[in-house]
Amino acid sequence: MCVGGCLCGEVRYEISKSPEKVTMCHCSFCQKTTGAAYMVQPALGASDLKITHGQTVVYTHVSEGSGQNIHINFCATCGTKLFQTFDRFDGAIGLYRGSLDDPNWIQVTPENSKHIFVGVAQAETVLPAHVPIYIGHAMQNDGTPNDPIVFEYPTRVGDI
After folding, report:
1. Largest CA distance in the chain
2. Residue 41 pLDDT level (bands cut at 50, 70, 90)
3. For residue 44, which of 16, 48, 106, 130 is within the disulfide window of CB 3.0 to 4.6 Å?
4. Strand partners, 13
5. What pLDDT is stored for residue 148 in this prediction?
6. Which long-range CB contacts under 8 A does 96-99 form with residues at least 24 apart?
7. Is 48 exposed, middle or buried (0-12, 13-18, 19+ CB in 10 A)?
8. pTM (2 decimals)?
9. Helices (H), the chain
10. For residue 2, how many other CB atoms are within 10 A of its CB?
């Protein structure tokens, strides 16, 4: 089990199971919502996360890519973003990894991770070797999987 929460401690949660997948999303939405080059987002089932203190406030945003709603759960006091839910992926939670007390509890490996929307990634971002890379999303809106690119060596986005 792992725990996390917001910056001020008003909202706390626990995770009962380690996520099986981790997505690094480089889309402009994730860049804006994190203030970073990309979001590191472990994928959980809704039953794997339990709020143990406080409650979140939800901001709903329409995805430019899918046209579906993304629901950002955050602390009303300090504004820390904790997790997202998705109309497109019912029952799934995308965690803001940085909200964990120990972000390194979630191991990111070539076997469990992928990078998406590298077509709009920041030019200096270095993509790892042997990890599935997608110019857009990993799947089309109808659920059809897209083919990944896999680099043999770390590759700078600006060099693609």
Report:
1. 46
2. very high
3. 48
4. 4, 51
5. 97
6. 96/34, 96/39, 96/41, 97/22, 97/40, 97/41, 97/42, 98/34, 98/40, 99/4, 99/5, 99/6
7. middle
8. 0.92
9. 28-34
10. 18
